[in-house]
């Protein structure tokens, strides 16, 4: 059996980045167990950013693409904050999500329920579901009231 030499740190990083976008913090965490020192990881991350392999801006775009259709702004922002993005990137993400929040909530609600609640229990269930997805009470109220208005 032929044994392969272990992957270099850069090869591992490019492998991760070829599968999906990663934030700088996330990639550093994944590479740390394979590096000789934290300085080597930081130097590699700096080089990857200079070569445009690593970009927190692209990561934010990827996060929106993967999560926004299923989750509310609160949930997506919570995930983004775990990646220690810059304040400007978080604010930009928040604005982008707020602009489409009602439409996204309406689509999530429509896929899951499709019809207005017929009882207080059903209404509470729909509200709990939407809140767990990260939508605000104001947005949830608009979506459910809008559905009830259409039904009348």
From TrEMBL:
<dbReference type="GO" id="GO:0006282">
    <property type="term" value="P:regulation of DNA repair"/>
</dbReference>
<keyword id="KW-0175">Coiled coil</keyword>
<dbReference type="GO" id="GO:0005737">
    <property type="term" value="C:cytoplasm"/>
</dbReference>
<comment type="similarity">
    <text>Belongs to the RecX family.</text>
</comment>
<feature type="coiled-coil region">
    <location>
        <begin position="83"/>
        <end position="110"/>
    </location>
</feature>
<keyword id="KW-0963">Cytoplasm</keyword>
<comment type="function">
    <text>Modulates RecA activity.</text>
</comment>
<dbReference type="InterPro" id="IPR053925">
    <property type="entry name" value="RecX_HTH_3rd"/>
</dbReference>
<dbReference type="InterPro" id="IPR003783">
    <property type="entry name" value="Regulatory_RecX"/>
</dbReference>
<dbReference type="InterPro" id="IPR036388">
    <property type="entry name" value="WH-like_DNA-bd_sf"/>
</dbReference>
<protein>
    <recommendedName>
        <fullName>Regulatory protein RecX</fullName>
    </recommendedName>
</protein>
<dbReference type="Pfam" id="PF21981">
    <property type="entry name" value="RecX_HTH3"/>
</dbReference>
<feature type="domain" description="RecX third three-helical">
    <location>
        <begin position="99"/>
        <end position="144"/>
    </location>
</feature>
């Amino acid at each position: 059996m032929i044994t392969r030499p272990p992957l270099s740190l850069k090869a591992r990083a490019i492998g991760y980045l070829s599968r999906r976008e990663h934030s700088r913090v996330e990639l550093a965490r994944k590479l740390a167990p394979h590096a000789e020192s934290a300085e080597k990881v930081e130097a590699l991350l700096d080089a990857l950013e200079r070569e445009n392999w690593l970009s927190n801006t692209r990561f934010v775009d990827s996060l929106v693409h993967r999560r926004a259709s299923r989750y509310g702004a609160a949930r997506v922002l919570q995930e983004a904050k775990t990646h220690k993005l810059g304040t400007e990137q978080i604010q930009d993400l928040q604005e982008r999500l707020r602009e489409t929040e009602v439409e996204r909530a309406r689509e999530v609600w429509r896929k899951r329920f499709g019809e207005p609640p017929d009882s207080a229990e059903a209404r509470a269930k729909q509200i709990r579901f939407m809140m767990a997805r990260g939508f605000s009470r104001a947005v949830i109220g608009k979506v459910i009231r809008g559905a009830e208005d259409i039904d009348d």
